[in-house]
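Lab meeting, action items carried over

1. Structure of the two-component assembly. Owner: GW. Status: complete.
Input record:
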Amino acid sequence: MINFLMSFSPSFILIFAGVLAAFIPSYPGRKGLMIGAPTLALVLLNMIYLQAGASGTNEFIGGYFNVAGIELTTLRIDPLSWVWGNIFAFAGILNGIFALHEKCKITDTSALIYTGAGIGAVFAGDLITLFMFWELLALSSVFIVWRGGKESYPAGMRYLAMHVLSGVLLLAGALIYGKETGTYAFNHIGIDAPGGKLLLLAFGIKAGFPLLHNWIQDAYPKSSVTGTVILSVFTTKLAIYALARGFAGTEMLIYIGGVMTVFPVFFAVLENDLRKVLSYSLNNQLGFMVAGIGIGSSLALNGVAAHVVVDILFKGLLFMSMGAVLHRVGTAKASELGGLFRTMPLTTLFCLIGAGSISAFPMMGGFISKSMIIAAMFEEHHYVVFAMLLFASAGVLEHSGIKVPYFAFFSHDSGKRPQEAPWNMLLAMGIAAFFCLYLAFPWGGYQVLYNLLPHEVAGEAAFSPYTADHVIFQMQLLMGAMFAFTLLKRFGLYPPERRAQILDFDWTYRRLGLNIVKWIDAMWGRLGAQIKMLFGKMFGGIGRRLYQVFSPAGAFSQDAPSGMAAVLTAGMLAAALLSVYFF
Amino acid sequence: MAKKPNKHPQGLTKKQAKERTEAHPLAVPFLWLGNEKVIKNFIFVPLFGAILFSVLGFFYPLHHPAPWDFFASYTLIGFVAYSFVVLCAWPLFKLLARDENYYGEGGDD
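Predicted assembly:
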């Protein structure tokens, strides 16, 4: 039985469980699948990896399928994919616990298939398998977006359009790459490889590259309470995996990542919807990862993998805490919240742990992983991007470290006295919070994180986070930023939270593009009407003429004068004679 | 005629007593966080922290300093970067904020 289960990707267990969930009317049964299937997948992938390790290799390749003459590899577990597989399966369990209270068949089914597609894509050994799971990921997740209600429908359509586009680019890139190189194996590709630019663009859409990022802030905050938590895990982190696998060391990514860390900071400070603030924050954290991939050194790639692990935990935790607020209060708008720590103390505590982790306070998750990426950037002498990352670190403290917990749980007393979050939400948040702290714990904690990383943390990848100088300078940065917050707040220079729609690049297609299409449509309609009128006039004129000539009342029906008839006959005779003479 | 006491038997004002009644039991020991005085004086916590870590930075300098490093440079970077981001929000809001239903799709909640 075990050998049978180990002969294919653990992702199929989740996908099968998802399909099964669609037909199970029993709510406890579905919830059992929501937690049981990712747990089984987690156990299996580790058994397979351990078995490979026991046979002296750190890579397991299997799960072969032959489709249309192409051999597909659905199971490739190596040190890189193992990290992602583990954290995806673990996040699947957390999501299952967080969503225990929700009696929604669509969410349960979609979440299971979505998780399975994410794990399947990570274990894909070739580009065609990657494409299939890539598309399944998009199709399964759009239903989670649509669970947000009527308003989420257009956002879901835009989300789907972007992800289908990403899939089409991936397929095109894969086919060109396969044709030119003779292999579809998904290993390092590089931007100069045939189809490389298309593949980079496909991955870039899902990773939220600048100007391609809006689907994140558009769709995620519009999903349901549990939907946003589920969505925040897989799609973007899969893109990071694909970039790390295919484009590590691509210098362009250093600058793209640098820009990604900085620009969301300015939007996050403007936003009133705290789930949207977190969506911008997600983009900002992805920037750190993309920049790390661009460097491509062992230290940087370890930093990226570590940051993916802790980001899934602390970002999930932050989204969960805002989900709990939305669940209890009915809104996640900063302008409507405040003072909730009085009745939601545990949610407040968990949110503060998430906020501290993302801000990279010592002893909390992000401190280890973000520092690895920044240190790698420094080692490679990319001082401009290094400075951008420092700037972004202060920005992260602003939007996720301070703004989210402050406006939801402290700030002014909104007078709202909601109940504490349901037990299942608290349990999921508690587990995530525990790991945020544990994986940064100096005595035996971060070493566990190190054991997960794709490269051994030694030699050129060696990194000691808890040196006095590192802790002190990180605290300097954070204390300087926190002092700025208190000072600006004290002097009334911190902008108030106001309800508004903040325009971003999506304005170009949601308003400008839409108006251009509407204008073209109107012009086309007018042009059509003009052409119709012109043709109408033209054919109407010809018709009138013909009528005037041939109708019963027309010229041909009238009695012609004999003189005219004689002239016509003479003319016809002349024409006949001439034609006979010359031809 | 005796004046009606406006204090709670435990020495709390009516507002404090009501707040305590409404609060989650685990939050009761932390209700002082909502006190105006505490909020107003919280500024001294990061100020003290910034001074402390700046001084410590003098004794434990970075092993690999950046080209621009000087005394308390990271404190200054944090302060300036944060202030810049927040102060930019004023003109950016004027430039980018529109009615909440600008796209005609309703709010996000």
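2. GW to write a short summary for the group page. Key points so far: The longest strand of chain B covers residues 97-98. Residues 43-96 of chain B form one domain.
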